[in-house]
Hints:
By secondary structure, the chain is an alpha+beta fold. The protein has 4 helices and 8 strands; from the N terminus they run H-E-E-E-E-E-E-E-E-H-H-H. Keywords: Signal.
Amino acid sequence: xxxxxxxxxxxxxxxxxxxxxxxxxxxxxxxxxxxxxxxxxxxxxxxxxxxxxxxxxxxxxxxxxxxxxxxxxxxxxxxxxxxxxxxxxxxxxxxxxxxxxxxxxxxxxxxxxxxxxxxxxxxxxxxxxxxxxxxxxxxxxxxxxxxxxxxxxxxxxxxxxxxxxxxxxxxxxxxxxxxxxxxxxxxxxxxxxxxxxxxxxxxxxxxxxxxxxxxxxxxxxxxxxxxxxx
Length: 230
């Protein structure tokens, strides 16, 4: 009996230690607040649009949120807020304004915030920050402190490739619009090695880029008035 009692005591001790390990792991990861609420799935996002085709004027990024707790049989509301002290992007200029009053449908456990980035209004060398938080006083308050805020950093940078100087006679000064229009028709950016191997093929594409911008002078993109040998 004594041996059986000792074995049972050790089993109980191991079970208690296992529970403590699980609870510590959870506490170290996230701090839960309340019985139910909502949180962002990630605390930060990065969106680089410089190498997208020139024809892409706007870009929609989808930010998922997850409700924690039991699903409700009725719709529940929650509210988002732009954190002005961190945000550098301007609503209506750099991104399309979005509704901060949100409804999670009955039975749903997730939602998606769609943010439309107005790419053509972004400066060439700037990085933009949009920080959004979940308001406290709603049916679905922020439940995980570390995921109660989300920060989106985006830009439209496209640095001049190393081979541009070799083609400057035809292409003129670097303008990211020229390269983005080239990417649109070529399908991808070009490395130095690829340019060395297929220079005249790429020049023929740039000749089309030149014709496009000559037909659209409102874009303000200029090429040198020189003879093209392709």
